[in-house]
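Re: [ENG-882] Designed sequences occasionally contain unexpected residues at chain ends

Forwarding the minimal case from QA. Structure tokens:
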């Protein structure tokens, strides 16, 4: 079963409102000021980095304003491969913000909080202006301006041909740490699924008859789970509760079940012969497993792990899907001429929907009403309405369609014999209009390397909800597509590896319980950290504080920059085609004096997400001031970075400077860049 990682609700508009609020508000309350409304609640001795008492298992603080209370906690996790105990460097932990109404204790739900861990450079707590500036900087642009821990980030994961998983940070441009980690696997991975808490990744290893388990926080292989000798684990699925991981054992009349809490094999359940895909009823009570060689679908009690019955279907059933709207199971037979509709209450076929032979994929859009059935024989997609169990339309798509993935607004269809993908607007499907548009997604079709065509998704929606990443194995590239464009807006290298699967790992704060917003973190270095925190409705800004104890497991901190670079063009109004001088004031951080005589001040100017860039060497204009002359090719938002190798400063070590460039015929208020505002664009990347 293909793993679909749907994007969380878009936060672009919320972020824009947050920025406007930061700029406008004058009623800012610092967490460092102890008052009747702010109370520290230390969990244990905070001197965890010193000899003597061990680091505390947790730390917590409380902040209250205008009837809303925020309890911030950091809890160290144990027994999950973390080398360090307590809130100390090297430990795995969970950061949580519990938001309630102070008078009733009722949770405040549906929020989109933003937070970061920012290392404090000296003993002094940041002033109000400094704390506000931290939030403005982090919320306004993620490219190259990075806190020590970002609780609003996501990563691209690729499962590769060289038996590795790569963790790529797409929100860092031109930085040497863009490739975050490479995790070696003991064999070739086929399919994968993420645990409900996003901390563990389960990867099927067909040749090893095992499932690998990867910790997404430490980014290390923590072990493998054997599923029986000579068994071939392929497709993998997580039940709705997130408790059990189900694995189809191809070539064997069985499926395996793994307990995600103990990461142990708990059952091997009889099914039928052939290839297996797995779907669950909404309550998770029953699993439906297709058996391609037996021409049946097995109904399994997901609580007792006992097979209840086998339901006959068409020839070679493989694709299976559940409609959350209709409550029925749908099974497509690759060599059959209908799609079977099964009523879970009666455990029998209640209708057969006529189709042509060749349906290789079947999946419902997020609303659960419309199923997209891909026919690889005649290169079409047919849309089934679960309300009527009829096909409401069929249209031609890219050649060799084999996968379909959804954002909130569009269906993305990959073709194995095309370097393009088909895009279908979901809002028009309900009106009976199925009008695919083909968009370029690489230079070579997947069929160029037929041995690299796998079973897992190669298209994944981004958390913003209006974009997707597309992996191309022959190109060894990842393409970034923003809806509304006719071509990808940017590309990412996969570091000379051929991707066989693509996943977005969203480590943003998510609501894990009513009013409880949480994210796993890795405490890499010791020290005192400010934790800027912001929500929009109700409006609240605050800087918490945390002390991470020292530990032998601490990572070596990256040495700070010895110079400060101040752009001198922030308030200038720049226009397309105009030659402008961009000046930078460079001073020594230790004494604030101008730094003269530099001959290697390198300036990089690029248009996110990398569709245009230019580099120049700056010349000295005045003592401590360096400049380049730049002509911007078109209206939009550009980012400017500076490197000075002689001072150990590389691109990405210092914050970038966003530069809006206007068309001479348009006012600042109406200028847009690629249909995005500056805030939206930085958030997208």
């Amino acid at each position: 079963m293909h793993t679909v990682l749907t994007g969380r609700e878009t936060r672009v508009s919320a972020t824009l409102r947050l920025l406007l609020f930061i700029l406008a508000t004058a009623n800012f309350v610092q967490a460092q000021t102890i008052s009747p409304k702010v109370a520290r609640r230390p969990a244990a001795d905070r001197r965890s980095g010193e000899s003597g008492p061990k680091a505390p298992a947790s730390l917590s603080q409380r902040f209250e304003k205008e009837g809303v209370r925020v309890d911030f906690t950091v809890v160290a996790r144990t027994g999950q491969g973390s080398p360090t105990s307590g809130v100390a460097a090297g430990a795995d932990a969970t950061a949580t913000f519990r938001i309630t109404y102070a008078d009733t204790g009722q949770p405040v739900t549906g929020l989109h909080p933003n937070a970061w861990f920012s290392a404090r450079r000296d003993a002094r707590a940041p002033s109000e202006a400094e704390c506000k500036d931290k939030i403005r900087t982090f919320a306004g642009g993620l490219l190259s301006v990075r806190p020590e821990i970002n609780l609003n980030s996501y990563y691209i994961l690729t499962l590769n041909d060289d038996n590795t998983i790569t963790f790529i940070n797409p929100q860092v441009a031109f930085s040497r740490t863009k490739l975050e980690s490479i995790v070696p696997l003991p064999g070739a991975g086929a399919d994968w699924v993420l645990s409900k808490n996003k901390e563990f990744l389960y990867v099927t290893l067909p040749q090893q008859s095992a499932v690998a388990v990867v910790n997404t926080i430490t980014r290390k292989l923590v072990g493998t789970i054997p599923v029986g000798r000579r068994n071939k684990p392929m497709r993998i699925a997580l039940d709705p509760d997130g408790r059990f991981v189900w694995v189809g054992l191809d070539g064997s009349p069985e499926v395996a079940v793994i307990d995600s809490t103990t990461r142990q094999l708990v059952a091997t359940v009889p099914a039928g012969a052939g290839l297996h895909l797995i779907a669950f009823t909404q309550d998770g009570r029953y699993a439906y497993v297709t058996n391609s060689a037996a021409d049946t679908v097995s109904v399994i009690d997901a609580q007792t792990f006992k097979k209840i019955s086998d339901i006959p279907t068409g020839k070679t059933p493989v694709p299976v899907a559940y409609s959350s709207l209709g409550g029925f199971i749908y099974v497509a037979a690759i060599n059959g001429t209908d799609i079977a509709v099964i009523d879970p209450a009666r455990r029998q076929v209640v209708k057969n929907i006529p189709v042509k032979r060749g349906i290789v994929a079947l999946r419902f859009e997020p609303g659960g009403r419309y199923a997209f059935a891909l026919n690889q024989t005649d290169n079409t997609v047919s849309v089934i309405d679960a309300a009527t169990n009829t096909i409401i339309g069929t249209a031609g798509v890219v050649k060799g369609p084999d996968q379909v993935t959804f954002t909130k607004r569009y269906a993305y269809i990959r073709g194995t014999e095309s370097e393009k993908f088909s895009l279908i607007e979901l809002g028009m499907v309900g009106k009976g209009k199925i009008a695919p548009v083909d968009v370029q997604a690489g230079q070579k079709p997947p069929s160029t390397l037929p041995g690299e065509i796998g079973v897992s998704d190669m298209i994944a929606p981004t958390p913003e909800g209006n974009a997707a990443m597309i992996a191309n194995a022959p190109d060894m590239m990842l393409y970034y597509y923003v809806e509304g464009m006719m071509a990808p807006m940017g590309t990412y290298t996969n570091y000379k590896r051929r991707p066989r699967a693509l996943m977005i790992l969203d480590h943003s704060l998510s609501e894990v319980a009513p009013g409880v917003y949480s994210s796993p973190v890795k405490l890499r270095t010791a020290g005192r950290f400010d934790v800027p925190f912001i929500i929009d409705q109700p409006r609240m800004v605050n800087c918490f504080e945390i002390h991470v104890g020292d530990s032998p497991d601490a990572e070596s901190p990256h040495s700070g920059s010895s110079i400060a670079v101040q752009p001198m063009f922030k308030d200038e109004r720049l226009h397309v085609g105009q030659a402008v001088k961009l000046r930078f004031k460079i001073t020594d951080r230790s004494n604030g004096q101008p730094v003269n005589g530099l001959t290697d001040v390198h300036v990089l100017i690029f248009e996110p997400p990398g569709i245009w860039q230019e580099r120049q060497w700056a010349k000295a204009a005045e003592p401590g001031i360096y400049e380049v002359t730049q002509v911007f090719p078109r209206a939009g938002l550009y980012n400017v970075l500076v490197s000075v190798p002689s001072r150990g400063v590389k691109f990405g070590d210092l914050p970038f400077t966003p530069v809006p460039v206007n068309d001479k015929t348009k006012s600042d208020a109406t200028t847009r860049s690629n249909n995005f505002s500056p805030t939206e664009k930085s958030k997208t990347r």
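QA comment: On inspection the terminal residues look reasonable. Residues 12-24 form the longest helix (13 residues). Proposing we downgrade this to a documentation issue.
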